[in-house]
Amino acid sequence: LARTIDDLLDLSVIETNSVQEPTPVAVVSIVNDAVAQVSNAAAVASIPINILGVDAEASVCGDRRQLVSAVFNLLDNAVKYSEPGAPIDISASSERERVLIVVRDRGIGIPTRDLERIFERFYRVDRARSRDSGGTGLGLSIVRHVAAAHGGDVCVSSHEGEGSTFTLMFPTPLREESVDHG
Fold it and tell me: N or C: more exposed end of the chain, with fewer CB within 10 A?
């Protein structure tokens, strides 16, 4: 119940306030913080998280806490829906005028019929598994709202039994702004 309330409060803040005072944040610090936050759950589940290249120069303009929360929620879902030993890969790169943060798992995957709905509040593909793992059904909704609040987007590619790849896309900040490295 406490986790659901926390997630609802986070979602409410994201929806109503957008980004209060956006500042450039180094993507490497976003990735490292999110990986650190999920590392205990990943270790307990025997799931390795591989950081496969993060552009050291990449940055995103926005609210650092919200950005870390979005990446954390993608990693947390990947851990919950993967079998022990199945690695999760995360990478980040700059591409023209946007930054891409990619989280790939080799978990159970998402049925095609559910792909359109997974970013809805409280929507769960596998209700029994989400309940057992403590999921609130709000994580992907938070991811979508954080992306939108930062002028970005999120997309997913998934195949049942093979895993899922989530890609967060954000515009790059103006070059003259100083970057918060965490």
Answer: N
Rounded mean pLDDT for each run of 10 residues along the chain, 182 residues in total = 54 58 90 96 96 92 91 94 95 92 93 72 54 61 89 93 94 66 65
- The arrangement of strands across the sheet holding 49-54 comes to 49-54, 88-95, 98-104, 163-171, 153-159
CA 164 to chain centre: 12
CA angle 15, 120, 27 (to 5 degrees): 60
According to DSSP H, which parts of 18-138 are helical? 27-44, 64-80, 127-133
Number of Cβ within a 10 Å radius of residue 127: 11
CB-neighbour burial class of residue 70 (10 A; exposed 0-12, middle 13-18, buried 19+):
buried
Cα distances (Å, whole numbers) of residue 152 to 9, 100, 105, 124, 173: 21, 10, 22, 23, 12
pTM of the model: 0.81
Q: Which residue has the tokens 């496969």?
A: 52
